[in-house]
Amino acid sequence: MTEPIRVLVADDQSLLRGSFRVLIDTAPGLTAVGEASTGAEAVEGAQRLCPDVVLMDIRMPGMDGIEATRHIAGSPETARTRVLILTTFDLDEYVYGALRAGAAGFLLKDTSPEVLLAGIRTVAVGESLLAPSVTRRLIAEFARLPHAHHAPGSSLEDLTEREREVLLLVARGLSNADISEYLHLSNGTVKTYIGRLLSKLRARDRAQLVISAYESGLVSAAHQSTD
User: Fold this and answer.
1) Residues 7-27: what's their mean pLDDT?
2) Beta pairing, strands 105-108 & 53-57
3) What CATH class does 5-129 carry?
4) Do the beta carbons of residue 86 and residue 111 sit within 8 Å?
5) Eight-class DSSP state of 101
6) Which PANTHER family does the UniProt entry name for this protein (predicted)?
């Protein structure tokens, strides 16, 4: 029997934490292993409980969700734990920082229960949750802000032309299947390119590849497709 996906719920609102916990505990293949009301508690809980996924609020007292995510993603002790950010606004400036800190993706707090549960399952198996209609615009917007450190070309100099092409399509929100069709490559070949990109760019996951594409200057506003 497959072990259930273990989830830690981090939110400063007790009512929301309780609601998320009930939802998770009643879903097949998922179990809530703990709660946290602050970022510091989320980090401690991740270390102590070793959850597969932390459902992380951004705005919490003391250490916020971004700093907590940075601690969880950056520590060898909790590096296998995936962080799924929950936010109130789809263009919350903090989401960009959370993705840079190592979050696997984000969802809105008013998303449907079905989408939330599917999102937890998605990040638990190592995928990134990047909704193209929202995330492309969000990252494109905040990667152009003054606090984003651009170094056009510097981090991509070891990539081949084809790898750059694949990275650009990843940043546009295309799935592996979409990239396969667009470039007339097999799914296996696309997976190989993704693996090479993760290794060369020292990226944790697909979300980090998207960040690299924007911060390097590979993707600009001119590259953005319209929704």
Assistant:
1) 96
2) unpaired
3) alpha beta
4) no
5) H
6) TRANSCRIPTIONAL REGULATORY PROTEIN NARL-RELATED, TWO-COMPONENT RESPONSE REGULATOR
Would you identify the CATH topology of the domain 151-223? Arc Repressor Mutant, subunit A (1.10.10)
Nearest residue to 54 via CA among 109, 130, 124, 115: 124
Query: Are 5-129 and 151-223 the same fold in CATH?
Result: no
Confidence label for 156 from pLDDT (cuts 50, 70 and 90): confident
CA of 46: how far to CAs of 49, 71, 128, in Å?
Answer: 5, 10, 19
Contacts of 35 (CB under 8 A, 6+ apart): 8, 9, 10, 11, 17, 21, 45
CA angle 85, 87, 89 (to 5 degrees): 145
Q: Please answer whether residues 169 and 225 qualify as being in contact, where contact means their C-beta atoms are separated by less than 8 angstroms.
A: no
Q: What is the pTM assigned to this prediction?
A: 0.72
What was the pLDDT predicted at 81? 95
- In one-letter notation, the amino acid at residue 173 is G
Q: What are phi and psi of 148, to 5 degrees?
A: -85, 130
Q: Once rounded to an integer, what is the mean pLDDT over residues 177-182?
A: 91
* DSSP tally for the chain: helices H, then strands E: 10, 5
